[in-house]
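Record 1 of the preview.
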Amino acid sequence: MRTGIFIVVLSSLQTSVGECERMPEVSLVMLRIRVNHYLSASQIQGIVRTDLIFETQSINLKQQIHTRHRFTRHVIPTETVEGADSRSHCAFKFKGDIMFKHSVVACALAAATIAVHAQSSVSISGIVDLGVAKGNGGTAANAGGNGTSKAWMQKQATPSRLVFRGTEDLGGGTSVSFVLDHRFTPDDGASSATFWGGRSLLEIGSAKTGTLYMGRDYSPAFWPAFLSDPFQWGGVGQIGLPQFAGFSDTAVVRTNNTLGYLSPRLGGVTVRVATGLGEGVAPRDDGISVDYRANGIYAAVGFQKLHGAAALGGGNSLSNLALHYDFGVVKPMLYVARSKTAGGTVSNQFWNLAAVAPFGADKVKVAYSQLTPGKSAKQTKISLGYEHYLSKRTNVYLDAGSGRESGKSTNTAYGVGIRHTF
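->
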């Protein structure tokens, strides 16, 4: 059974609607229709019966009369094969002996709901995150910190976003969908420089064959890094971009003009492969990742490489590896990365150890990371965080991160805030 709900508002409705025998003059009618489709067991025959459940509210502004009616109509199409005439006798009886025969509105809705077999949906979701952070003004690198400023700053930990998702079921397990992800800063209401900066994708696929996608998306090598940061690249405690060991995709950790494929999960293994077309103005950005998830284990490897002129980053590459195990009371995480930059002539190394320990409505996070960028000074960071969930969608957090670098003063920052998802 498939269900849909429609709400129709008819204003200034006259006494003659369709072939009504009797209906009071009204100024406003609200019609709410719930449509239940009953499919054949094999779905080969399609819809074998449709129940239309009508609920109306009418307001007579002149006589100040407010009435409610409810009725149900079973609609059985004459045939359910392609090209068939699915007309039915639309006669409905209301409480109060009000009769509609061949009502224009009811018949149109009945025909439309019977004819539409493919199901579609659009959803809106997002995150709003705000807090305050204070740093000591140190000069060492500290991802997510306040730089050398000692001022209190209002900022977000998780990037705030507004996301539109849509899906249409094409039948046979295949669907087409889109994702449009807009990023903004709620403290000043500003939008990101790229309006759909998070993701902008169109994809088609199924659970059996995998998914083909196009547009703007994260590179395959991003996921082993992101999932190995207990702060998920947010707030003053984040490990963040240093996990890429100096490498940058054509859109930092994303690729534009992407052609990608995500395989179905087979035996716990998923493969993601993608290329970001340079279109003659940027390097081609190729990537692949393979991950395994089963029995508390997460293991993943990723690889990303730019192809093109060295001046534009051609020859740069990133290789990374992640390994997690969830004991239930704690989940330790190991991540290692190596990159080639400056046209593939400079080697950089990075690694981090981290852990997440959930207990009840609370969660504790800790991380240590180290970046060795070529022959430059080594950078380290230690992070500590705490979250408390007020509900399934709202939590408060307290984070701290301290970065150290040879020849520079320690940079330490603290942040507290609240995050709401919808």
